[in-house]
Amino acid sequence: MYSIFKILSERRSDLWLALLQHLQISLVSLLLAMIIAMPLAFWVTKHKKIAELLLQITSILQTIPSLALLGLLIPLVGIGTVPAVIALVVYALLPIFQNTYLGLTGIDPALEEAADAFGMSHLQKLFKVELPLAMPTIISGIRTALVLIIGTATMAALIGAGGLGSFILLGIDRNNTGLIVIGAICSGLLAISLSAFIKVLEHASVKTILIVLGTCCLFLTGFGIKDAVSNQTETITIAGKLGSEPEILINMYKELIEDGNSHIKVVLKPNFGKTTFLFSALKSGRIEIYPEFTGTILETFSQKSVVTTGLTAAQTYQKARNLVQKQNKLTLLKPMAYDNTYALAVKTDFMKKYHLSKISDLSLIQSQLNGGMTLEFIDREDGFKGIKKLYNINFPVKSMEPALRYQAIDQGKVNIVDAYSTDSELRQYHLSILKDDKHNFPIYQGAPLLKTTFVQKHPQVVNKLNKLAGKITEKEMQEMNYEVNVKNVEPRKVAHSYLLKHHLIKEK
After folding, report:
1. Which of 64, 164, 338, 435 is deepest in the core (most CB within 10 A)?
2. CA gap 4, 177 in Å, rounded
3. Residues of 445-482 as b/e, b for ≥16 C-beta within 10 angstroms?
4. How many Cβ atoms sit within 10 Å of the Cβ of residue 308?
5. Cα(399)–Cα(405) distance, rounded to whole angstroms?
6. What is the pTM of this model?
7. pLDDT, tens digit, 9 for 90 and up, residues 137-169
8. Measured between alpha carbons, how far is 304 from 318 in angstroms, rounded to an integer?
């Protein structure tokens, strides 16, 4: 409980921001789903065959896994809030459409006839008779849709849309139960609170409901105006991938850029998502800078097969820089010193037991191996695919999220995992890295990635960021990751301490 209260105290502003983002995404999705589903339901009350078809379609849409739906939407509409809202609208259509249709078709025919006898027009009958009678059923569908939306909206954090899911993802990544609990509880409380509020509207008049809807629209419009006004001031948005290391780096970038320059505002978006999400966001102009690795550029973004084995650090950087410059009109600045390459890691006592020192040694104990690795590593040519081919070894491997694979090896559920050479968990869980004696893993030096047009317009920013070129050793990066992940020091404090220690910024 103490750790939860400590997190609440330290991350109060982050929590409020995540809560408002979650609320905004949820309400926008709910209102759009209502605008689509309810008029359709009104119309098909006289067309039963079409109603059955639409019910089948909305039912099928709701069975699509959320991750698959987001993956399908990203190539079409990019990342961020838009694909998240579209996915949530898709999931909310069924309960709203179904309950609206059932509510309207379940009205006693005698009441319909009485309304006709009084000479009511179609609209008069809808607002004075049908809607008031069907409202409890309709509201029930809206409540179901809202709870579904709020729960599913936690996935929005995976594609850079923010929300309470960012706390949950960060908690999983850092093995911090407090963050997970806070994100889950806040999401649940938000769903319960809004569901209870909507239930009150079950027996409210149509006029009252319209007023509530109008208020929600004004609330959301206010957010839009605020964002539009804030966007009139030039800001530099820096994003980072999931994990402590990217967050430390982007905090360094922020301090370096703002140091001695009060006219520049830097906005950070930590834990933005996977590599491809950040790359898409950079190309589309949603962010200006993010830290990327030389090996990742060559292995992930090249449209042609690129040979990376045997290259020096300088050759890898030059090849990566030329590739993104020519292919994507992006600029990779000078890299830092450390090589955060892939690695295979085992428990130190396991290493001693089987006299292991390099990956080649694994061929002698293949039958004893049981791996836990990230899906990305399993599927990469410079990952497990390359290991199997180059070293002629194979053993069973389960795909796991990055943080979970370390928990699994610590608990003895697996005995070999993939790792990054600067991971704090290597120290935390007493793991040792096996030497890549046949050089399967390319060099992975980190450096800021920016649009070339941004570089040309902001030479002073480039000069500030280049202060990190050639700095930070693997040992220093691992120690900083350890401070964040194990000692629970804020990434901005770790970043600030390093910059001060190495005289890269001035003491304020």
Report:
1. 164
2. 9
3. bbbbbbbeebbeebeebbebbebbeebbeeebbbebbb
4. 24
5. 8
6. 0.74
7. 998 999 999 999 999 998 888 777 888 988 888
8. 17
